[in-house]
Amino acid sequence: MSAEPSTATIYHLEMLERGAHCVKEPPAGFAVEQALPPDAGLNAQFYRRVGAAWKWTDRLPWSPAAWRRYVERDELTTWIGRLDRQSVGYFELEAQPAGAVQIAYFGLLPEFIGRGIGGPLLSAAIEEAWNLAGTRRVWVHTCTHDHPHALGNYRRRGFKVFKTDPA
């Protein structure tokens, strides 16, 4: 662990109505599918590959058992984005109290960044979150260590910042 102070800012964003979603249409051959049954190894692999460039480190020391405990919870679903049947990225949705659904993790595999897939994948995540019974709020957080276009993508899809924090 580094002793250097963090200079990141965390942005907490929310969407309070399904109608606020500004859908980014997917390219031909794009689809999302839920990872069934839940597969801790799959989540760990996506976490490592997607997060490597963005300083996702908190889960790197997790054991396989810790990953299973996390992934196999009823509150969590994992979705895989595919383009022409090839995996391009993923997202995790976590159902929370009072009708909140968090997009807990979201991202593209490095080789698909810059190909116009982030908006459609985020739109799919938002749609799947609103499709969960009882959803009243969809929320997510990002930070200045994430892809430089992450915050803009969330805003373009209809999310509003409700809080910022230093990391």
Query: SS-based structural class?
Result: alpha+beta
CATH class: Alpha Beta
Helix content: 10-25%
Largest beta sheet: strand ordering: 2-3-4-5-6-1-7
The total strand number stands at: 7
What is the correct CATH architecture?
Answer: 3-Layer(aba) Sandwich
Query: Would you identify the regions where 5 or more consecutive residues have pLDDT less than 50?
Result: none
- Major beta-sheet overview: 7 strands, mixed
What percentage of the residues does DSSP assign to strands (E)?
25-35%
Question: How would you characterize this protein structure?
Answer:
This protein has 167 residues and is α+β, with helices and mostly antiparallel strands. It contains four helices and seven strands. The chain has a seven-stranded mixed sheet with strand order 2-3-4-5-6-1-7, with helices on both faces. Helix 1 crosses helix 2. It is globular and about 40 Å long. The mean pLDDT is 94.
